[in-house]
Specification:
Length: about 450
């Protein structure tokens, strides 16, 4: 996704009610449903602007196929996003997609590779002309009605009588394409039915998005995937390493994690919490009903349980306070009532070393200039998120800071409400070296500690 400056955020929040956020190069990057991720060398996290689907249309898209016994495993590259390579079409073409549990509509880059146009398409883009299972949604499809409320920007009928969608990136640029149907072909004997995807024609980014939330147009909903899981490896620290990661000739620098669709042989070691559901009266205006909402009970820093009411982590009547697990957001963000207690404790433990008056990307204000990272980590101690049923996610003291460049390291928790958001989001930074399994069939999420660089 393209970078978004802090000045443009207020306009975006006026239009959008749920989002994902990442920070890089001292700017804030937002992903709204669609999604965001640090993608190619010319783009970091793209803003998502498509939301949930129409119920009847999604049912038709799924074609009432029975659930498939998926048993697929793969690896992904991790820098600030989880980038998987998936086989799409007939015969399959390998497509790079950002795995995002916080967004719905999946999309791929679509370019006909011949004849050569003025600006050559990304080499990894999908060529629809080479796939026998590809089709475009016509204008009379139920999803292509201007008044369908599920899309933030309504779909339209283009000059070819095909269903067309448009959305704006956070930096104000426009991307657009057609809604299409295409299948994922995992093997000769295992493929999905044709799924509704976005087919982006006006974007130079190399990666698409694999939308994995609970919305009706998400990959898991359309393909009827009962469960999936991933293991996020430790990300290399330092801006030098990240700059190298963006070089096409050094892709192997990115650590490799594991991704499963279906059964995970490691699940016997996981500890599970429930995916929470709420009445419709609690879903507006700030509640995202398609997110993986969980019961966060508290936070410990350096062994001390912070004095935060568990009610802060639950949605109120207007939906504020929802806590979600999101692979498409880099850092963790807390509502003000929780964030204030976290910052108070960090200041108590390491206050003299805080960089005064510095806010990274408009969201991280617990940062340290130079000094000994190990010493600061020892002062702060381990960070633990406490969930229901005694389940915990621990980030040890050696990993609580993230190098944001220029010798500055920031505590990887930001204030969400200062950016106009009313949700708690557990991002992929705090999921490192953990299995995270989304058991949709049983409405639960499992966590398991692992060395994710060796988990495939």
């Amino acid at each position: 996704m393209k970078m978004a400056s802090c000045k443009s955020l207020s306009l975006l929040f006026f239009f959008l009610s749920s989002f994902h956020l990442s920070i890089q190069d001292n700017t804030v990057s937002l992903s709204f449903p669609l999604t965001s991720a640090p993608l190619s060398e010319t783009s970091a996290f793209k803003a998502k602007l498509l939301s949930s689907p129409n119920k009847n249309a999604a049912a038709a898209a799924a074609a009432s196929s029975p659930p498939l016994g998926y048993d697929y495993r793969s690896s992904f590259k991790y820098s600030m996003a989880l980038i998987v390579s998936l086989p799409i079409g007939t015969p399959p073409q390998t497509q790079q997609m950002v795995l995002d549990t916080g967004s719905q509509l999946s999309w791929i880059q679509c370019h006909r590779k011949t004849p050569v146009v003025r600006k050559p398409p990304p080499t990894t883009s999908f060529d629809p002309s080479l796939s026998s299972s590809f089709s475009v949604l016509p204008c009379n499809h139920p999803l292509c009605k201007p008044r369908i409320p599920d899309f933030t920007l309504p779909t339209t009928c283009d000059q070819n009588r095909l269903c067309h969608y448009s959305y704006f990136y956070a930096d104000g640029t426009l991307a657009e394409g057609n809604l299409v149907r295409e299948k994922f072909t995992f093997s000769n004997s295992q493929s999905t039915p044709p799924l509704i995807l976005g087919c982006a024609a006006d974007s130079n980014d190399a990666e698409g998005i694999l939308g994995m939330n609970l919305g009706r147009l998400s990959f898991i909903s359309q393909a009827k995937v009962p469960r999936f899981s991933y293991c996020v490896p430790l990300r290399r620290q330092g801006r030098v390493a990240q700059n190298i990661n963006n070089n096409k000739n050094n892709n192997n620098i990115n650590p490799t994690g594991a991704f499963y669709i279906g059964h995970n042989p490691n699940s016997g070691t996981f500890h599970y919490i429930s995916i929470l559901t709420f009445p419709k009266s609690q879903r507006a205006p700030n509640f995202d009903p398609h997110a993986y909402t969980v019961g966060l009970l508290g936070i410990r820093i350096g062994g001390k349980k912070l004095n935060i009411s568990a009610a802060v982590f639950r949605p109120d009547a207007g939906g504020s306070g929802q806590t979600m697990i999101d692979s498409g957001t880099q850092y963790t963000f807390l509502v003000d009532a929780a964030y204030a207690k976290v910052r108070e404790e960090v200041a108590r433990l390491a206050g003299p070393k805080l960089k005064k008056g510095f806010v990274y990307g408009g969201a991280l204000d617990m940062c340290f200039d130079g000094g000994d990272e190990a010493e600061i980590g020892r002062l702060i101690g381990d960070v633990v998120f406490e969930f229901e049923r005694g389940v915990e996610i621990l980030t040890n003291k050696e990993r609580v800071l993230d190098d944001v460049g220029g010798g500055i390291r920031c505590f990887a928790i930001g204030r969400s409400e200062s950016l106009g958001v009313a949700s708690n989001i557990i991002g992929n930074f705090h999921q490192q070296n953990h299995w995270v399994e989304f058991d949709v069939a049983n409405r639960r999420i499992g966590f398991g500690v692992a060395d994710c660089s060796r988990s495939l």
